């Protein structure tokens, strides 16, 4: 299981606001809930699942702004793919919280 942080920035839209694009990209995540788990944050989205599924979803997400008029899209991804034990978003947060006690 892998965890991916993805940030998609539509460029060439004529406005600094990107909320409409974020909402449309979020629909891809909602349609993929059977394969992945996701968490929307104010600056990016975190998704977890099998790496092949995650990369396929990121590809779909990347295309959405183009489909809605963006002339350029910048997508950044960070992949955390740990093979020695199962890592989840929840497990990572719990690990840090335990260390804070």
Descriptive overview:
With 101 residues, the chain is α+β, with helices and mostly antiparallel strands. It has a single domain (2-100), classed as 2-Layer Sandwich (Alpha-Beta Plaits), CATH 3.30.70.930. Helices cover 42% and strands 29% of the residues. It has three helices and four strands. The chain has helices at 19-31, 51-67, 89-100; strands at 2-11, 37-40, 45-49, 72-81. Strands 2-3-1-4 form a four-stranded antiparallel beta sheet. A hairpin with a 4-residue loop joins strand 2 and strand 3 (45-49). Helix 1 (19-31) runs antiparallel to helix 2 (51-67). The longest helix has 17 residues, at 51-67. It starts with a strand and ends with a helix. The mean pLDDT is 94. It comes from Cohnella luojiensis. Belongs to the UPF0045 family. Residues 4-97 form the Thiamine-binding protein domain. It holds the Pfam family Thiamine_BP. This is MTH1187 family thiamine-binding protein.
The amount of helix comes to 40-55%
**What's the count of strands?**
4
Number of domains: 1
Poorly predicted tracts of residues: none
Distance between the termini: 27 Å
Q: Which strand order does the major sheet show?
A: 2-3-1-4
Rg, Cα atoms, Å:
15 Å
Q: What does the average pLDDT come to? A: 94
CATH class: Alpha Beta
CATH domain fold name: Alpha-Beta Plaits
Which structural class best describes the helix and strand composition?
Answer: alpha+beta
Short précis:
The chain has about 100 residues and is an alpha+beta fold. It has helices spanning about 20-30, 50-65, 90-100, and strands at about 1-10, 35-40, 45-50, 70-80.
């Amino acid at each position: 299981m892998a965890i991916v942080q993805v940030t998609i920035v539509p460029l060439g839209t004529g406005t600094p606001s990107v909320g409409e694009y974020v909402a449309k990209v979020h629909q891809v995540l909602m349609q993929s809930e059977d394969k992945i788990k996701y968490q929307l944050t104010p600056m990016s989205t975190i998704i977890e699942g099998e790496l092949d599924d995650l990369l396929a979803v990121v590809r779909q997400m990347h295309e959405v702004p183009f489909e809605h008029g963006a002339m350029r899209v910048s997508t950044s991804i960070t992949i955390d793919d740990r093979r020695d034990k199962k890592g989840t978003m929840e497990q990572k947060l719990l690990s840090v919280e335990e260390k804070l006690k």
